[in-house]
Description:
It comes from Rhizobium chutanense. This protein is an alpha+beta fold.
Amino acid sequence: MIYDALFGKPLISLIVVGFAGILxxxxxxxQRPTTRLVVQILFFGLMTLIxxxxxxxxxxxxxxxxxxxQALLVVLAKSLWWVHLAWAVIGFIRLYxxxxxxxxxxxxxxxxxxxxxxxxxxxxxxxxxxxxxxGTLVATSGVIAIxxxxxxxxxxADVFSGIALTLGRPYVIGDWILLSDGTEGRIVESNxxxxxxxxxxxNVVVLPNSFLAKLGLTNVSRPDETHLLVLTIxxxxxxxxxxxxxxxxxxxxxxxxxxxxxxxxxxxxxxDATALEVELQFRVTSPSQRVTARNEVLDLVxxxxxxxxxxxxxxxxxxxxxxxxxxxxxxRPPSVTPLALIEAIPVFATLTSDEKQxxxxxxxxxxxxxxxxxxxxxxxxxxxxxVRAGIIVARREGEERGRFAPGDxxxxxxxxxxxxxxxxxEALTPVTVYEIAQKAFAPLLTERPALAEEIAGALAxxxxxxRDGAARPPEQAHNVHAILKTIRxxxxx
Length: 493
């Protein structure tokens, strides 16, 4: 019965099977390419079986008269067979033509091959179904091809440039690139005509492939995304260059936003009567971190210079007399007293001058040698400590979580909430701190609620800074909430 249904009227059966295959393929989800390919192969195989069984050869032109009642059925049947053959081949291409396991980068090449398949299908239908002499058609279409080529030369240039970029692979989707015209951003799409670049300003720049192929291109994401930054600092020559270089290196060492390996470099670039020019070279994890790292480095350079008594040099274009320049003999750099440090810390900005003076008078100086442990993880510091000079590293369970530089403070968890430190604090260099005892600080908390809020906010910000790519420890979040709860208790007292 099945044999009679298929081969009794083979042309009608083949047409029915062909259209049924089109409907089934249309309703299958594009998210299941393997299933679609299997369905295409099954219908194509069944159509081939019907054609062979009925003695029709789809790859040969069999002459027939236009008045033949079956002529239209033969044309339709053979055309459907060639369409299904093309779709089966395209299914293989979509599924298996992949460049190095990256289907998104292979899309342009896939589209090119698929275009060739469709052209071959159209020519085959013309030759084997309608009997059109393809050789003569191609020869007579040369003039038309020339006209079209001239009219579409820009589009064709984009297409072939896109093919060259895809095969050469100077970048892949997701890479951060820098072009010689100044365009910079991450590749988000590459198609036949253009490449789409997402810039740091969150704009998408669309560049024609022919234009992109002519530009010099730097792939910042290879071999990895670590990015070198260079900052030039001018310091007044009031100290020996070796000392200035050491201060700049300390500023980079205390930075939490830069890459530790390879270590940052400080290069002395020039020296004259007005300034010692220093070049700071450091790396960040990705180009998106450049602004954050540059801001932190500049802030730390200022703080370390102030701590070490260095003076920033005047700009090269400034008109000053040589006699007015500071020298090693007459320079009077500002001294970093407890009062000066308190005035420089933003959280104390709400205090009056008298309150700052009284707080400074209660400070004591403590010094630690390199490698000294200031406080162990789990211990409590009942006083507030402000870093006067040096670098302190914070470690949790042996893993570094952040660093303190001159102007930073710690011990607020014990001072405000009587809680333990979540990190071990160790002197990375010789360290000098100013310590303020709890009995001197407590009256200010009751009189200045904003001060306690600022310190609690600074602690929350430090938790984010010490996260270092990992989830914030639950104890840290608990400490922040406990401090805020303690503050509210103080307010109600």
